[in-house]
Every structure is written in structure tokens, then in C-alpha cells.
């Protein structure tokens, strides 16, 4: 565990620049022990189940779905954590309204930050924190880019997977970054994943990448639990009429089961887990760090909250979690 101290030290000298892993910037490349074959897959310490949430494409609301899925588990008494594996664009700190530097436990492992009863870890917690100089106290957006090559990303991902002190968890949700690259391959080589949830929108351009994500999990022998169609429809707040904004044309409006996401699920042999409505309130709740599962906890007959609960229940049943 001493390597955790070297890589994720809490000292200002390490966290105040863009190389928290301490790799040399110039000169002779660092040497690493040579391995024969692929790393041995293993479970994450104290974690019973691992669920990956993926889209293989940015901008479809995957992180919002992932955090609401995790919060839905937690609201049913399931001990849950969420790991933000997007090294370059971490979203979980904003979604959970969390910031600050994680402390280290007695084994020099990172202690997760918690809000709304959900444990979380993200690269965003390990980066320099932006300070506010505004009279209103508003914190400006951070402009510091994370400019790492593949080796540094892989090493950071290894530490986030194996050097976090989660404590006993029934399930850990992995919020995967867009694409099918280094992070996804590292996770597959390092840990056993019990299932993957693929998030898409009704548009063909998003669905095509989602299908590529399915192919990635298939090659990695990770069971795909199903697909979620985000931003599926807009429900009128006055009459409740549903309008499918991202439809495939006039001829398909009344036959949505025969094309698009549902049809692709049938072709691939995976379950369609459900629709998440397109609603400005979901976006506003996420931006202010209070996701729908929390923001509408006391709202009777919340269509938005129920949509996330329905998806979460199906996922829980598929991986053997006690949903009650």
C-alpha cells in the first residue's frame, strides 16, 4: 500500500501541478517491471458487485444516469459507491456537490467522499481546487487541462481501482468515460465486472457508438445488462402528453418499438431497460449538485425519479442485489 502514498500524496507539492503520479517529465523514460501476459483480474476489496455504466459517446447524459442509478440503490438500503473513471473530464464531484482533498487511512489508501448517503471517488478530488475571488462566492470553472499520456492514465486508473478504502459495499458503480480506449481496457484487465449498462439517446449517431460499446463489452466477456434510452421524450407538464423530439421521422412516430434503440436491443439480444425523459429540471438538478433521485425524493408521482428507480430495480435483480 506504500505505492498509494507515492502516487496520491496529499501534500500540496504533489497536488499543485499536473503530474500527481510523479513521473519524470524529461530524460530517460521510467522503467516498470516487465509482466508476462495480461494482469490477473481480481475483485475490488470489500466490494461485492461491480456495475459499469457506459455510452461510448459523450454528451448523452451517461454520468447523470450513473449517479441517479447509484443513488437509487442507496435509497433502497443497498450499500453503494460510485467511482468516476473519467480521468480527463470528471463529473461526479459536480453531480454530488463535493470538493476537497480526500484523506488517507492507516493503510495509505484514499477515503471516499460521501454525500446523500453515497460514497464516491473521482480524479476531480485529487486536482488543485479552484479558489473563488468573486464577492458572491461563486467558484469559476477550472481551466486546468489534464494532459497525460496513456501510461499515466493507466497507472492512475490502477490506483483508483485498488487503493480506495471503500469499506463494505454491496455494489460499486463505475462511471466510464466516452470511447473504448485505455481506461476501459485497463478496468477490464484489472477487475471483474458483474455487468454493464449502456446509455444512449434515440438518435442514430448516439446509438451507433452505443452499439460499438456493446461490441467492446462482448469482446471483454462482460455481460451487458441492457440499454437505457436517455432523453427519450418530452412530457408536457400540463397535460402529460409525450413528444418524442429525437424521433426518426413522421412515419415512425407511432411505431417506436420497430426501430432505433428497442429494435437494436432485440437484434443484439440484450434487454431494453427503459426510457429517461428529456426534462430541463433533470439538467438543472444535476448542475446544482442535487440529482433527481435526491431533488424529487419527496415529490409524489415524480415521473423522472420513477424512471431511474425502474431502471435501477432491473439492474439490481439482474446482478443479485436485494431490492426492497
From TrEMBL:
Signal sequence region: none
BP-aspect Gene Ontology terms: iron-sulfur cluster assembly; mitochondrial respiratory chain complex I assembly
Pfam families from the UniProt entry: ParA
Superkingdom as given in the UniProt entry: Eukaryota
Organism (species): Penicillium cataractarum
Record GO cellular component, one term: mitochondrion
Region (Disordered): 15-40
Keywords: ATP-binding, Iron, Iron-sulfur, Metal-binding, Nucleotide-binding
UniProt family annotation: Belongs to the Mrp/NBP35 ATP-binding proteins family.
Designated name of the protein: Iron-sulfur protein IND1
GO molecular function, one term: ATP binding
Cross-referenced PROSITE patterns: MRP
